[in-house]
Amino acid sequence: MKKIGIVAAAVIVIVVLAATLAGCAEGSALGIPSDLKINLNSQQEGIWVNGTGKVSAVPDIAILRLGIEAQSPKVADAQAQAAEAMDKVMKALTANGVAEKDIQTQTFNISKVTRWDDKNQQEVLIGYRVTNIVQAKIRTMSKVGIIIDAVATAGGDLTRIDGIGFSVEDPTTYNEVARQKAMADAEAKAKQIAQLSGITLGKPTYITESSYVPQPIFRGGFEKMAAAPGMVDTPISAGELDITVNVQVVYSILD
């Protein structure tokens, strides 16, 4: 009897569901709007394509990471040496046209310096190291090498240069051109797909965009000591940057 009851209940549910769907189509008395549409196909419709636009730009700013590293048996002495040398470096930067607002401290660190004592099998404190690193934005590209040499001379043997990178101050115009190329690339792909498929291409129904402007990449481990008298300026080549815009576009398919 229980099995018969379960089967009967299932039959009733199926009958009610069928009546509900029929009422939707005919505007029955169940209170469900007659214009309700049920989409049983969850597959996305349209032509989905990706487009890429790339523009080469000449960098107009250089980002220089530099600083001072001093070491001494006493922390106060190491800090005093670092402060004196860093003051000279800052003056060299501003004297060569780098604005104070374009100089930002990136790292300031005081750490212990130890060595391993094999006899006693333990670390032995031998001093302290003070590191002060700043990031300087150089807007006059022709002075990059001159500024590097001036900083190295000012900081002397305590000078540390982590690396240099290049960028574009305002990439708006480059992004606009790259965006046009990306949309044209997407449209060309969609037209070819439509032609190969024997369908008529409609208008875009969905568009997303992502852009990429290379950021300065700094490489650690490079140290530059004071420039010797009579040496030529450090040669620096900025080269070009590739600014890229990617779009994803969905085109409708016309009947």
Account of the protein in words:
By secondary structure, the protein is α+β, with helices and mostly antiparallel strands. The protein folds into 3 domains: 1-38; 47-56 and 172-213 and 246-254, Protein of unknown function (DUF541), domain 1 (Translation Initiation Factor IF3, 2-Layer Sandwich); 59-168 and 217-239, 2-Layer Sandwich (Alpha-Beta Plaits), CATH 3.30.70.2970. It is 33% helix and 36% strand. It has 4 helices and 7 strands, in the order αββαββαβαββ. The protein has helices spanning 2-26, 75-95, 144-155, 172-197; strands at 47-57, 61-72, 103-117, 122-138, 159-167, 200-212, 241-254. The chain has a 4-stranded antiparallel sheet with strand order 3-4-2-5, with helices on one face. The chain has a 3-stranded antiparallel sheet with strand order 1-7-6. Helix 2 (75-95) packs antiparallel against helix 3 (144-155). The longest helix has 26 residues, at 172-197. It starts with a helix and ends with a strand.
Ends distance: 55 Å
The CATH topology of the largest domain, please?
Alpha-Beta Plaits
Query: Unreliable runs, pLDDT <50, ≥5 residues?
Result: 1-34, 36-43, 219-230
Order of helices and strands: HEEHEEHEHEE
Helix fraction, binned, reads: 25-40%
How are strands sequenced across the largest beta sheet?
A: 3-4-2-5
- Say which CATH homologous superfamily of the largest domain is assigned: Protein of unknown function (DUF541), domain 2
How many β-strand runs?
A: 7
Report the sheet-strand fraction.
35-45%
- CATH architecture tag of the largest domain: 2-Layer Sandwich
Biggest β-sheet strands, sense, barrel: 4 strands, antiparallel
Structural class category? alpha+beta
Number of domains: 3
* Shape annotation: elongated
**Regarding CATH, which class of the largest domain?**
Alpha Beta
Number of helices: 4
Measured on Cα atoms, how large is the radius of gyration? 34 Å
Average pLDDT figure:
82
